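Recall the central idea of this unit: under ordinary conditions, the amino acid sequence of a chain determines the structure it adopts. In this exercise we apply that idea directly, starting from the sequence alone.
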Amino acid sequence: MLPSEILRKIRRIQITTSRMVTDIFAGQYESVFKGRGMEFDEVREYQPGDEIRSIDWNVTARMGHPYVKKFVEERQLTVMILLDASASTGFGSGKQLKSELAAELSAVLAFSAIRNNDRVGLIIFTDKIEKFIPPRKGTSHVLRVIREALYFKPKGKETDIAKAVEYLNAVTTRRAVVFVISDFYSKDYRKALSIANKKHDVIALTIHDPRESDMPNAGIIELGDAETGRVFLVDTSSASVRKKYNERSRKILAERKEIFNSSKVDHIDISTTKPYLEPLIQFFKMRERRRM
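Accordingly, the structure predicted from this sequence is:
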């Protein structure tokens, strides 16, 4: 039995995101993602003007004259959400933790998928695969996805994006639209992300809190690494300490952006202190312009 607080939160997210999907994302999701893939329909005899590369050589050899493969647009999509549940997502300097924001983004994407009759699945990960919900349709299924995103208690603390992406490739045989929702504090995921993006359409949603890249002057404070458990004192009144911290943070962000660019993975930057609606809309518009 889920606590009443979680049930109320699920209901609130359901109402908020359903309205958002209906009022704002209506048509945009479909125009951006629908028809991206092609699926085999049938073979037919070759006709003048057909592309040579579409010839089915096996059928041609059996029949004695050319046949070509006919494809149709794949109208039904599989949407996979890879949700980072590592300990670092339990941070937030404003009204919302990164984990809560990630769960709400999962809800928006899941409702967008079922509104267009697509299947949606969920992989929750840390430094291990914590939970896998195979892709299905329907409101009750999406509510389960939201419930797990909000309420699931992971066993791991650290982050291994490469392992999550490799698991995705193992359990998802058909091409899918894949949203990786994470703060991307992980190592050695460039190769795995690049390989996955050749098989799927991968989009990275990077969740970031301003305090992770801008240390305030707050005197001597105790900081802890949520994933390793290390705790240490930092004198934030020191200008040089703040400078080193901020420079290191900017370097991490720059490296992350370079990984996405080299892997040809689209990414959306989401802040815990700003509404996520505008970045999502800008992403949809960018994708639509690219298709046109």
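The chain has two domains: 4-32+76-209+248-291, 36-74.
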